[in-house]
Amino acid sequence: MTDPTDPTAEAAMVLLREHGPMHTGEWARLLVAEGHGYLADMEELAEYIGHPRLGYLADGRSVALDSLLAGRVLTHRLTDVEVASGILGAHPDLTPLLPFDDRDPAAGGLRILFRDLDDDVFDERGVDDPGWPTAAALLLEPDALVDFRAGDPVALAFVDGELRLTAAAAPPAPAPDLTDALADLVPMDRPEPLDGIVWQLMADDRALFAAPTTPLGDLITNAGYVCDGDDIAVRGFDFAAHRGKQHLAAVAAAHHLTDDETDAVMAFMALIGALERTPDDEREAAVDAVVASASDGFAGLARPRAARAAFGEAYATLHAGTETLRLAAAVLRDRGPRRIAPTAHWLAGKAAELDGRTTDAERHYERALAVDPNWDEALEALARFASDRGDAVRAIGLLDRVEGASREPMYDLLQMFLPVDRPDLGRNDRCWCGSGRKYKACHLGKAEHPLEQRAGWLYQKARSFAQGSAWRSLLLSLAQIRSAHDDDPFALYHALDDPLVADVALFECGAFERFVTERDVLLPADELLLAQQWLLTERSVHEVEGARPGEGLTLRDVRTGDRLEVTERTASRQLRAGDFFCARVVPAGSTMQIFGGIEPIAPGQRGRLIELLDSDSTDPEDLVEFLSARFAPPRLVTADGHPMVACRAVFEVSDTAGIRRRLSRRFGAADADRWTWTEDGSVLGVLHLARGTDPWVLEVEAMNESRFESLIDAVGAADPGARLREQTRTPAAELMAQAQENGVRPVHPVGPEDPEIATALDEHIRGYEQQWLDEAIPALGGHTPRECAADPTRRDELTRLLDSFPQQERPGAMSARRLREALGL
């Protein structure tokens, strides 16, 4: 998607406003003719531009919505709920006028609401119907409609570049007949997006909706059409069936289903619907009807991929309960073709597993294998159970029968716990362990690993459990928070496997407790006891007091003061004394170990993190968000508190003499046609008139968008004929990252080495340093740096904090040297 602040994107939108709706090729050729680039590049821009004012018509053309909607008026008749709540249900009457984001000035201050996303607002306004509104709604002041009555018309108009809501004028304009126009745009066999259709009507008829008239919903109904959600179709169209087919097509594509497998999944969904939604006294007849209509249609469920799709759709999409799944499995087992018996037993096992009935689940999976010894899903499920029991031999044996399973992480883990035979011992020799029994009866084919080695296996068993269907939505939510600052297109995918995400899901979200409860019948006794100990262990903040590279760490728990000797091979090579991190340190046999990742903690974060960990009201999402904030780009602000953004614009000027005079009056005398905007000794912006071009150009630069807009206004006032040729707005953090990458100066018209930016950065940082000296710092126990510098008992902690700061001086960073000088250290 193209950055809407890209000057070429802005130029493209200007052309679209001037020339009206255009197809991609026509738009690209016009951009080339205006000198904006090569055809291939402009075609790509026109295809993928993501401008907030851009819309698409039904005929495929792109349109500038602020231009198309200018002067249009749509009406709506009020209801009692709307009058009482001050909320307008906008669908379908008003939605074509609501393409603008709430923050867009074009929205006119109106806020758009949606059910589920804004339930708290509806509750505050006394709207207790969870089904209203069905789509977008407009939030007004609570008493905005008190002078109206139900049935009164209101009008929403796009005037002077913004939306305005007023009482509709009376009498209304004659109602247009949309019958013929909609017949040309809406096919008989499928729905079309409502917005695109109405925008097309407006593009085809500039007089349409130029004055208040009959509400759009009534006009659509009168023409023989109906709206459902965001779509419009001919009256009588089965939207539910259409969306069901679309959804199933997506499922078929995702699971690579054949036609017969897709039909089988549809039949299974129909069975789930009959069991879930039919009254008890009618359920048997409904099930009979589904079975009769499906006939042999369930047969496609014999293949594991179809079975997986059927279960996923039933559980995740239809939200079928476990009792419904159990009943559906029984129907398939008793009334479906014999070849789907493994599927029936596997589904029954999944239902039992979701209910926490582990023994019943294992019995169903075993029955599935009794019918088909090579049924993949049952093999994998039983391999997990064997792993939970600590039986690596059986787990590996089951996975070896599944194609591709040897590439799974669990397979490699299990290999580590396979028994090692003793070739020096015969089967009837005394066992090596000293039990006095024969080797064949004691340790032949068996493995005994100490608990400290099996602790990692236990943790992976729990992680595998937490990746089941019941926890996927939770994992996804945490992963979205974890990856929020990562632009990598695969960031969310990687975050799903992030150690912190998995560990928070296990412990803070309760998956580990449920694992212990449901798998207690499988886990070895010592592992079960260990798991119960882990449930009592809290995540904490730890200080590294010593590191033994490749062996372990000596830690101090900051919250409790406890000192711990931890076995940790990898992190012990990277951490050093004085480092702080957040982790869960747990017992593991005779050792202490860390599972769930190590999160480095900056000095300024420690106090707030400890507060979060100590509070019983901290949500898991809040914890992940806090610990993931270190991935966010640095936020730099100017002295007046605005985000620091390097802004540059280039104007073609027509009145060079006049603009010199007016700019000098506003910003003081120029130095070689260069004006510097200063206030209280601070540089706020720079303007430079370049003579070497025809026409002359004026370059404008500022370090935040508020100042930049002021400069642009000043240029417009100084030379009303000035033409904006290009502009860029780049966050300063992005520029600094470019500058630091490989030590290369960014190729950009404005950089942090420029005097104005350097001055602004230095001004901001020095001001912040002075504030910091007298702030209560959590890492210093709530004391200020000056207080700690004056107190011999706290000076060491202050010195350690300053030592943790970057010692190399660089733009945009606090200077440890200046801070030490200010504190007399």
Number of helices: 35
Distance between the termini: 52 Å
Q: Runs with pLDDT <50, length 5+?
A: 742-754
* Total domain units: 5
Strand numbers in spatial order across the main sheet: 14-13-12-15-16
Strand content: 5-15%
Note the main sheet: 5 strands, antiparallel
Per DSSP E runs of 2 or more residues, the count of β-strands stands at: 21
What Rg, in angstroms, do the CA atoms define? 34 Å
Average of per-residue pLDDT values: 87
Report what the structure shows.
It is a single chain. The protein has 825 residues and is an alpha+beta fold. It contains 35 helices and 21 strands. Strands 14-13-12-15-16 form a five-stranded antiparallel beta sheet. Strands 18-19-20-17-21 form a five-stranded antiparallel beta sheet, sandwiched between helices. Helix 10 packs across helix 11 (259-277) and helix 29 packs across helix 30. The two termini are 52 Å apart.
Index terms:
5-stranded antiparallel sheet; 825 residues; alpha+beta; 45% helix; single chain; 5 domains
Write the layout of secondary structure elements.
Layout: H1 7-19, H2 24-33, H3 39-48, E1 54-56, E2 62-64, H4 65-68, E3 73-77, H5 80-85, E4 87-89, E5 111-113, H6 119-124, E6 137-139, E7 153-159, E8 162-167, H7 179-185, E9 192-193, H8 194-204, H9 216-222, E10 225-228, E11 231-234, H10 239-255, H11 259-277, H12 280-294, H13 304-317, H14 322-335, H15 341-354, H16 358-371, H17 376-389, H18 392-399, H19 409-415, H20 439-442, H21 451-466, H22 472-482, H23 491-495, H24 499-506, H25 511-519, H26 525-534, E12 540-548, E13 552-557, E14 563-567, E15 580-588, E16 591-600, H27 606-614, H28 620-628, E17 645-652, H29 656-667, E18 674-679, E19 682-690, E20 697-702, H30 705-718, E21 723-731, H31 732-740, H32 755-773, H33 785-790, H34 795-803, H35 816-823
Helix pairs in contact: 2-3, 10-11, 11-12, 11-13, 11-14, 14-15, 15-16, 16-17, 17-18, 21-25, 21-26, 22-24, 22-28, 29-30
